[in-house]
């Protein structure tokens, strides 16, 4: 039996998520992006996972970060922000990673505007968590942990 532990999770945030704390708290809560990172780190530590973070407002940088992940991460938690709804470039780059991924949204995207209901990455992800605020990341991490242990 292999003793290799697969516990390296890349947590990727896309456009406008660095502005948490300034965005509508009724959708996104009151944590700043830095506070969210700290909270996710605590939850990951409790689950025995290690996390690395990446955030950008530039779609090409997000795509190139996905290109570089092979061998550096065992799973991905991603909240691409508005890119979720239309970026086929992110779909294709995520597909190339061949890594298990979970899509997370702080807000309940299915209860908001019609255009937020579609996700171009959903079919590539082993799970999707939406509308649970920062605690949604715990669920996403737990899903990946379960998947990686299987
Ligand atoms: C979001 C939902 C998206 O529709 C929106 O564009 C975001 C954040 C969320 O976390 O709820 O920027 O991904």
Descriptors:
5-stranded parallel β-sheet, 150 residues, binds 1,3,4-trihydroxy-5-OXO-cyclohexanecarboxylic acid, 5 helices, globular, single chain, alpha/beta
Care to count the β-strands? 5
Helix/strand order, N-terminal first: EHHEHEHEEH
Beta-strand proportion: 15-25%
Attached small molecules: 1,3,4-trihydroxy-5-OXO-cyclohexanecarboxylic acid
Largest sheet: 5 strands, parallel
Q: What class would the helix/strand composition place it in?
A: alpha/beta
Radius of gyration over C-alpha positions, nearest whole angstrom = 14 Å
Strand order, main sheet: write it out: 2-1-3-4-5
Mean pLDDT: 96
**Fraction of residues in H or I helices:** 25-40%
Regions with little confidence, pLDDT below 50 for 5+ residues: none
Count of DSSP H/I helices: 5
Structure described in brief:
By secondary structure, this protein is α/β, with parallel strands linked by helices.
Structural summary, described in words:
The protein has 150 residues and is of the alpha/beta class. The chain is 35% helix and 17% strand. Helix 2 packs parallel to helix 5 and helix 3 (59-67) runs parallel beside helix 4 (88-97). The mean pLDDT is 96. 1,3,4-trihydroxy-5-OXO-cyclohexanecarboxylic acid (DQA) binds next to loops.
